[in-house]
Amino acid sequence: MTEASQVLVWIHADSLSVADPAMIANGNAPAVFIFDDALLSKHGFSHQRLVFLYESAVEIAAQNPLFEIHHGHVCETLRSLALTFGATEIHTTSGIAPLQAKTLSLLEKDFSIRLHEPEKFVTYKGPTPKRFMNFWYKIEKDAMRFDR
Amino acid sequence: MKLRTDFTSRDDLSRYVSETFGTSGDPSPDFTGGRTEALRRLHSFSLHGYAAKRNLTEVSAVSMLSPYIRHGVMTLAEVRRFVLGKFGQGKDTYKFIFELAWRHFFQLVYAASGDKIYRDMETGKTGVSKYDGILPQDVAEARTGLRCMDYFMQKLLATGYLHNHERMWFASYLVHHRRVDWLVGERLFYKHLIDGDPASNALSWQWVASTFSAKPYIFNKEVLERCTDGVHCKVCEVKESCPFNFPPGVLEERLFGKRFEQ
Ligand SMILES: Cc1cc2nc3c(=O)[nH]c(=O)nc-3n(C[C@H](O)[C@H](O)[C@H](O)COP(=O)(O)OP(=O)(O)OC[C@H]3O[C@@H](n4cnc5c(N)ncnc54)[C@H](O)[C@@H]3O)c2cc1C
Asked: Could you tell me if A22 and A47 lie in one domain?
């Protein structure tokens, strides 16, 4: 990663894919996946889990020469890579993990943050469901529709 | 710290992961990371018979796509679209999309609740006041003497995957028979399952425990034996003293001192 880029794409573990929407939207931008040291030591993930994540990340590297894999403190790593590239924007795909929101909130003071939406499974917009069957009856038609 | 991306083989990558993160073991025999493999699986998955056979653990009726879906290697939306396009709207497709929807449901609850999913979502319905906060050693070492449970533990450690019913039975055994806090089981699964997902895992454990459902999930020997084609029971030494060998109502009485409505 040497070329200057306005955008750095953050690939996280909820969108670890060559089809990641944020990366696709920024074809030539540098991108990074970071193994979060704090999370690794908190959970003590098995070797198999880490190999799976690593293999998924390596496949992205094979397709995107500007993609890197790191381990460390996620927020600090993003910050320092963005500075290295002269990036002023950090793009990522919207996820629901509270840690993602927390990380982005720490970066938004210094960088412009842009969230890319993954395709939705169904278009449900109602209240948070409590029991699955009630929820299913509400989304069933939409979920089973082929042409939407 | 920047990590390598140039590996000559899976073993090479696996060795590097060990050196970097201090882990040990072999890569999962069942799952190779990446979208190429995810797409290969999706395209070769036969949905025929899914509705009738998805509960059977010894038949390969399920997709084993969960690690790829969990990590966004492929999305629920594209899996949904693909199966509808390829198989049409029959009962197998219906059941499969119904299962995909479970994941979406858990995600919506997680999006709204955040880390509160790691606390009881509701008061438990079992009436049991105390659960242990550690994993019993015999369970951890897969030497409970119950062939089914010992097998599930060994399989979890060896492959990083359990069939949905194996997860349900193991969780029910740990929480209701051994009276272990659901969070202990949740931690164990999260560490080892390659599809380990905050929402699907924690909320499924809570569903079994009855802190996110109307009643505790229990199973009996008849169900387990039927769904596993008897592979565990045939070789199990506990025979008559099998803790699961009761009609459901009797089992509830024994475990909770009351019966739940069916
Ligand atoms: C105690 C317990 C813990 C669990 N922990 C996880 C977890 O950490 N991660 C995880 O992805 N699933 C979890 N599940 C749900 C389910 O067991 C797995 O998703 C399923 O077994 C994966 O196998 P498959 O891909 O072959 O499923 P298939 O039957 O082929 O289903 C297709 C997809 O639908 C989704 N799905 C199917 N069943 C469920 C379900 N009951 N709940 C949520 N999603 C479902 C998965 O994404 C799955 O890949 C857990 C279930 C229990 C009872």
From this structure: yes
The domain containing residue A135 runs over which residues?
121-148
Query: B134 at the A interface (CB within 8 A)?
Result: no
For range B208-237, the mean pLDDT: 97
CATH for A8 = 3.40.50.620
Using one digit for the tens of pLDDT, what is the confidence trace for B40-90?
Answer: 999 999 999 999 999 999 998 999 999 999 999 999 999 999 999 999 999
| B25 vs B14: CA distance, rounded Å | 9
Residues of B in contact with A71 (CB under 8 A): 1, 3, 20-21
Kindly determine whether residue B17 and residue A146, on different chains, have CB atoms separated by under 8 Å. no
Name the minimum distance, in Å, from the CA of A115 to any CA of chain B. Answer: 15
Report which of B104, B175, B53, B196 is spatially closest to residue A132, judged by C-alpha positions: B104
Which protein residues touch ligand 1 with a CB less than 6 Å away?
B 54, 62-66, 69-70, 99-100, 102-103, 106, 163-164, 167-168, 171, 189, 193, 195-197, 200-201, 204-205, 208
Name the B residues in 168-187 with CB < 8 Å from any A CB: 187
Quote the number of domains for chain A.
2
> Which element (helix H / strand E) includes B129?
none
Residue A33 is inside which H or E element, if any? strand A31-36
Do A133 and A79 fall within a single domain?
Answer: no
CA distance, residue B70 to nearest chain A CA (Å): 7
Q: How many CA atoms, within 13 angstroms, populate the side-chain half-sphere of residue A142?
A: 13
Across B129-141, average pLDDT: 97
The pTM assigned to this predicted structure is 0.97
pLDDT at A2: 46
What is the ipTM, given to two decimal places? 0.96
